Recover the amino acids of this structure.
C-alpha cells in the first residue's frame, strides 16, 4: 500500500495571460484556466503506482477558489482525495512562499511515501516548486523522472531521462520526484468519478485558519522575488478572411495567401 501526494497547479490559459503593471503578478480574474498539462503526467504516475500497489492518491493545490474545477478534473481521473489551499493571504506568492505553504499543508497530511510534481508549469516555467518543497521537508529529490520501477521496503528505484542518457536512482522514502514532461499518457476523466466528486463534495478547502502560518511568510509579504520591470508586447491585430466557393479553388486561394504572408517559401 502506498500513499502518494501529487501537486497540481491551476494555470491561466497561456494565450490569455495578462500582468498587473503595478505588482507584476498575473491577473487571473476573467482569464480561462486549466490544469497545468505537465502536472497531469504526475497525476497519471501517481495513479499507476496506486493501481500497482494499492493505497491512496491525494491531490493538493494552492490556488483561488476557481481551482476547485481543476481538482474535480483529477478526481474524475481517479484521484482519491483533493485539497484546495486557498486564502487571500496566500495571494501574490512567489515560488518560495508557495512551496512553504505546500510543504506545511503536506506535513499536516501525516505520513506519505511519495510527493510527485510535474516538471514545470506553463505560466512561469520556473521548475522551482518540487525542489523547494523537498528542501522545506528535508527529503530526497529527483528531477526528470520517467517512471518508478520499484517501490517498497522504505525505498524506491526511479528512472530519469537526460539529454544524452538514462539514469537510475535508488532513494529512501519518503521522497519528492518531478516527472519529465510527456513521460506519461494521462488517462481520460470518467464521468461517474467526476459526478461523484461533485455530489460528495470531496474537494476539501484549507485556509490559513487551518494551517496557522505566519502571514509575514506567505503571499506577497512572504515573497522575496521582486518584479522590477514588465515588458509589454504590442497587440497584433488578427486577420480574418473567408473564401466561399469551389473547394479546389479554395485550396489555390489559400496557398496564394500563405505565399503572400511568407508562410510558404515559394
Amino acid at each position: 500500500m502506498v500513499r502518494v501526494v501529487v501537486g497540481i497547479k491551476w494555470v491561466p490559459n497561456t494565450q490569455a495571460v495578462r500582468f498587473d503593471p503595478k505588482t507584476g503578478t498575473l491577473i487571473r480574474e476573467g482569464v480561462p484556466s486549466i490544469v497545468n498539462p505537465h502536472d497531469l503526467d504526475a497525476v497519471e504516475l501517481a495513479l499507476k503506482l496506486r493501481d500497482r500497489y494499492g493505497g491512496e492518491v491525494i491531490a493538493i493545490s494552492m490556488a483561488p477558489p476557481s481551482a476547485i474545477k481543476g481538482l474535480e478534473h483529477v478526481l474524475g481521473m481517479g484521484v482519491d482525495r483533493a485539497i484546495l489551499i486557498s486564502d487571500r493571504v496566500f495571494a501574490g506568492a512567489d515560488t518560495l512562499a508557495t512551496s512553504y505553504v505546500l510543504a506545511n499543508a503536506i506535513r499536516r497530511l501525516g505520513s506519505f511515501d511519495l510527493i510527485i510534481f510535474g516538471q514545470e508549469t506553463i505560466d512561469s516555467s520556473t521548475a522551482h516548486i518540487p525542489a523547494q518543497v523537498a528542501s522545506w521537508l528535508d527529503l530526497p529529490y529527483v528531477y526528470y523522472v520517467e517512471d518508478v520501477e520499484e517501490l517498497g521496503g522504505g525505498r524506491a528505484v526511479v528512472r530519469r531521462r537526460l539529454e544524452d542518457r538514462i539514469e537510475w536512482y535508488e532513494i529512501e522514502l519518503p521522497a519528492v520526484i518531478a516527472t519529465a514532461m510527456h513521460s506519461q499518457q494521462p488517462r481520460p476523466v470518467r464521468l461517474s468519478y467526476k459526478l461523484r466528486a461533485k455530489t460528495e463534495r470531496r474537494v476539501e478547502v484549507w485556509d490559513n485558519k487551518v494551517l496557522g502560518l505566519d502571514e509575514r511568510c506567505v503571499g506577497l509579504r512572504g515573497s522575496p522575488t521582486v518584479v522590477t520591470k514588465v515588458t509589454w508586447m504590442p497587440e497584433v491585430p488578427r486577420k480574418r478572411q473567408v473564401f466561399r466557393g469551389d473547394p479546389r479553388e479554395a485550396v489555390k486561394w489559400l496557398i496564394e495567401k500563405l505565399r503572400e504572408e511568407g508562410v510558404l517559401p515559394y
User: Anything to note?
Assistant: The chain is about 30% helix and 25% strand. The first strand starts at residue 2 and ends at 7.
